[in-house]
Design a protein that fits this description.
It is built from six helices and 22 strands. The protein has a nine-stranded mixed sheet, with no helix packed on it. It has a five-stranded antiparallel sheet with strand order 2-1-5-4-3.
Length: about 475
């Protein structure tokens, strides 16, 4: 997991704002790649070649090695043609007028090219580039401030990516003073991910964020699908170079087990049984269901201790959407029901009903049982604001008829939502609640450091790609059940 080189570039006008090469990693690349090794070109040569590859120059000209049908790129990883050969894998993307790029080390021969998933440096390189984006972006409108920040990057990368190995991708948390870097304590027990030590009253903040994805069809021959994805974020302000913390996640009785668990590299040990459960396999009584204990040495800044999935028995909001044509109008009906087990207290809850491949909404008649309905400025989207609570019945409904004007280029199109294929997308957040029931027992958090810590634990449930498809038309689906 190392980088051969890193660049910060500008397209208009073309310029190299920053570059960093790692000669020791380049030597390793020559050894691993053997005869397939391609050297890193000069900055000006690389800039010219990358702009051509990204189609930022000569985009109106057919360039065979770039534009041929056999080279359709589905990722941000590119093969950049240079005099010495094709430089691969170059990770590059644009953000706010700047181009962020790096060249990870591939620890094997480059012919044939190994699968991207086996190049471990890609994920680390992306994390480092995103950290630089987060550091640079706030100053984009102030040229002088941005120039100053770019000037500090070299010192910051000494801490974040020493000798080409990304250790701390949170660039904003680092100190740009080289003097301070020299004076950092050299405790042999301090792990690399603790870039600084905290002084003050110990505090631990834990937040469980669960996101629920859902596809509902309201059809007899199609199975509705939903999945919960969780992340446990921690911020531990604790004195010491290597403080030990143990945190446990608990589930209610008969709660669905956590699956597909992935832990942060700061976790020092884990029960193998926790990692065995996979969402790709059916649940049975032998699946480990907690408590999930994580001993770890926390990084200096906020981090995600673990990720997980879970197969909950029901989605939080059940819905039905019907859209049918009646002459020149569309008749729509939307029914939503909050499941009784869900906390009826939202920060926000709204249903968005888009209309693709049609003109602007010219006429709208509707009736809502609860909340309010708004029409977007471009007149192609209905926003049903349900608010912070469902009514006592836990059910809400919307009925209406819609007619459209003449379609123009400014109105949204979609290749999936043709004809009457349409959806309602839900957006909501429920604070202090998790769909799995997963929680952190504050009394079970063990901190092996002096002082009584202040512990704060919270949770939240957020919708993510929560779709309810028109039951009166075809819809994209994950799979169909086989009926006799």
């Amino acid at each position: 997991m190392a980088l051969r080189a890193l660049w910060l570039l500008k397209h208009d006008p073309a310029a190299v704002l920053f570059s960093r090469r790692y000669p020791t990693v380049e030597i390793r690349a020559e050894t691993f790649n053997g005869s397939t090794h391609v050297p890193v070109p000069s900055d000006s040569t690389f800039l010219k070649a990358l702009l051509l590859e990204l189609r930022l120059v000569d985009d109106h000209i057919f360039v065979e090695h770039r534009d041929t049908c056999t080279r359709i790129n589905h990722s941000s990883v590119y093969s950049v043609r240079t005099e010495g050969g094709d430089l691969w894998p170059v990770l590059a993307f644009q953000k706010s007028g700047l181009i962020y790029a790096c060249l990870p080390l591939v620890e094997e021969t480059l012919e044939p090219r190994p699968p991207l998933l086996t190049v471990s440096g890609l994920s680390q390189g992306l994390a480092l580039l995103l950290g630089i984006v987060d550091y640079i972006s706030p100053s984009r409108k102030n040229e002088a401030e941005m120039t100053a920040k770019i000037g500090q990057l070299r010192n910051l990368l000494i801490q974040a990516c020493p000798l080409g190995t990304p250790l701390n991708t949170n660039i904003r948390s680092l100190n740009s003073s080289f003097d301070d870097i020299q004076e950092m304590p050299t405790d042999e027990n301090q792990p690399a991910w603790r870039s600084s030590t905290y002084k003050g009253k110990p505090q631990v903040n834990v937040c469980i964020t669960e996101k629920v994805k859902c596809m509902q069809y309201d059809k007899r021959d199609v199975v509705d699908m939903w999945q919960v994805y969780g992340a446990v974020n921690c911020k531990c302000d604790i004195e010491g170079s290597a403080p030990n913390v143990t945190l446990s996640l608990n589930l209610p009785t008969n709660g669905p087990p956590l699956q597909d668990i992935v832990v942060h590299h700061c976790v020092t040990s884990v029960d193998p049984a926790m990692l065995m459960s996979s969402s790709a396999e059916p649940l049975d009584d032998s699946v480990y269901n907690g408590p999930y204990k994580f001993p770890f040495i926390p990084p200096s800044d906020s981090f995600n201790l673990c990720y997980y999935t879970s197969q909950v028995p029901v989605p939080p909001i059940l819905g039905c959407y019907q859209l049918i044509e009646e002459g020149s109008q569309l008749k729509i009906t939307v029914n939503l029901k909050l499941h009784e087990s869900i906390k009826n207290s939202f920060e926000y809850c709204e249903a968005r009903i888009p209309f693709f491949n049609r003109g602007p909404i010219a006429q709208l008649e509707y009736k809502v049982s609860y909340g309010q309905l708004d029409l977007s400025r471009e007149k192609s989207l209905l926003v049903w604001i349900i608010g912070q609570k469902f009514p006592k019945s836990l059910e809400v409904s919307l009925t209406g008829t819609v007619s459209f004007g003449t379609a123009g280029k400014e109105h949204p199109t979609d290749y999936v939502c043709t004809g009457n294929t349409a959806y309602v997308k839900l957006y909501f957040r429920i604070p202090d609640f998790t769909l799995t029931g997963c929680y952190v027992d504050q009394h079970s958090i063990q901190i092996f450091a002096p002082g009584k810590p202040k512990i704060t634990a919270s949770g939240e449930l957020i919708s993510s790609d929560y779709y309810i498809w028109n039951s009166k038309a075809p819809a994209p689906m994950l799979y169909k059940t086989l009926l006799d």
